[in-house]
Amino acid sequence: MSVPRRLHQLARLGFRTGRFLVFATYYSAIAVNHRHELYAPTKRVGDATFRSYELVNKHGRDVLLRQLLARCGPGDVVVDVGANTGVYSLAVAAAEPTARVVAFEANPAVCAQLRTNVRRNEFETRVDVRAVGLGDDTGTRRFYRSTYDELGSFAAANASAWEARVRDTVEVPIARLDDLVAAGDVAPPNHLKVDVEGFGYDVLRGAEETLRRHRPVVYFEPHAVDDEERDTDAVAGFLRSLDYRIRTRDGRESAWVCEPESREPDGSTEPTRSNS
């Protein structure tokens, strides 16, 4: 092996090791901070302000969050799938006090952090937190918890990305959004945000009737599972079959805003939009 190549490999190893130490330390620190509710700095997202036990305003500059806030109006219903510790849910509640958010987070430990942040802002009447994963079936599924809490996933490979590793596994409840909406347990959404570390296609397939009937705007962040095509070609084809336009934002292929055409896919009726 040549000296330059060896130096390059050592530099790359050093970078990865350093990144692991930084991330591992950060996630350990915020776990302690949430558990003991020590320090909740103020976060600003656009004109909205809220407090959370995250130590930095992580995801506060996300292009999808900006797009959601720009479109969210009074009385709108937002379904936040893969809510994590709640930056999207908290920002919506802070920006639009009459909006309602249903936040789904499958990772039990992270969901507890989300509840802590919602309580810290006294948003309990605005943000309905569900310790449930959404998918295309009902029951339970094995969830891989990661040493980087944010990377927890139903796929082991996703939970061990970025030098992380699988911490343990836990069985978590899974539901279909269509079933929850049909039962009246969740109001028909105006906005559907999906960021679930590789299982977005499953979430959307379990929401097909909701997409057909109620026409929410979809904010989607693709993640690969096993192969790159799962959450790009499959999701794109599925949404287009339902008469959605897909637009990437800021040149990012990982930030999709998917807007319905003005009429139902079969051209028969105007879309149903519920602001109740």
Automatic annotation (TrEMBL):
Keywords: Methyltransferase, Transferase
Segments of this protein annotated with the region Disordered: 250-276
Record flagged with keyword Methyltransferase: yes
SUPFAM superfamilies xrefs: S-adenosyl-L-methionine-dependent methyltransferases
Domain Methyltransferase FkbM: from-to ranges: 80-246
Keyword Transferase: yes
Annotated InterPro entries: FkbM_mtfrase (IPR006342), SAM-dependent_MTase (IPR052514), SAM-dependent_MTases_sf (IPR029063)
Pfam families in alphabetical order: Methyltransf_21 (PF05050)
One Gene Ontology MF term: methyltransferase activity
Signal peptide: none
GO biological process terms held by the UniProt record: methylation
Name recorded for this polypeptide: Methyltransferase, FkbM family
